[in-house]
Amino acid sequence: MDFDKELIRKLKEANSVVFFTGAGISAESGISTFRGKDGLWNKLKPEELANFDAFMRNPDMVWEWYQYRRNIISNTKPNAGHEAITKFEKYFDVTVVTQNVDNLHGRAGSKSIYELHGNIERNFCIQCRTFYNKNNFNSTQNVPKCSSCGGMIRPDVVWFGENLPQDVFSKAEQKAKECDICFIVGTSAVVYPAAYIPITAKQNGAYLVEINIEPTEITTSVDCSITGKAGEVLPELFGIVNKLDKV
Ligand code: BJW
Ligand code: ZN
Questions:
Q1: Positions of the chain with pLDDT under 70
Q2: Ligand 1 pocket residue status of 28, Cβ below 6 Å
Q3: How many angstroms does the Cα of residue 190 sit away from the middle of ligand 1?
């Protein structure tokens, strides 16, 4: 693969790099994306599952959907894309800002991760906010109840109409303001406020690089667009970085 000369020059000079990732980076681990032809929401409408009202209307159905996804996720592994990002830490101050809830960046070993939409491995009680991890309910098909107050337990993910964890978003925004390069990997970039992260990076002078298998909402705004699979492009790019005379 031939990479843009300007990108190579930017990589040579950069100190701080943000990887803004979405479902596409986990696709090669076998986890479905949300939108697109093989997307999770081709058959299921997001508004029927990924919002609080849907959960209140049909908690068992929503819980079962998350148990099904947790089961898939726990049987997958980080792929070459997640792993390549950890290797960039050898040469850059790397921050991963992810919309994914699958914890694959964590399992790959990335050191600095901001999870904007939560983490499917955690749960909490909607009444008293006691937190539980997924192992508490491995084989629970119906929505479990809190052992302290009896309230319903939900996954610790951000649904439509809900605020993102404010401290996490603020810190991610700060990293976006400070970075020299922002990679936008495997996201349709249509969900806000998460999609403000690369926009913020650009407004503060960062060089934007998109890695995706197809054009997205943000393609016309980036400085460099690379068409390809994250699990192939990122290791190749790291191979280039590894040969640069970086200190
Ligand atoms: C590959 C590949 C390979 C495939 N290699 N690439 C401003 C403007 C407009 C709307 C809004 C706005 N501000 C807020 C909104 C409303 C709403 C929103 O954004 N709506 C738009 C969709 C219209 N936002 C919200 O509601 C947010 N909250 C909020 O704003 O709070 C304030 C508020 C309070 C009260 C009232 C109103 C507002 C919350 C958003 C929460 C999103 N949650 C989800 C579900 C998480 C839980 C779960 O997993 O079940 O997060 S939705 C879903 O989309 C999930 C994802 O993180 C997110 C982004 O999806 P992503 O990652 O981009 O995946 P895809 O499938 O879309 O794309 C995959 C890409 O990969 C594709 O491009 C492929 O080509 C590519 N790909 N294989 C590289 N191998
Ligand atoms: Zn409780």
A1: 37-48, 136, 139, 247
A2: yes
A3: 6
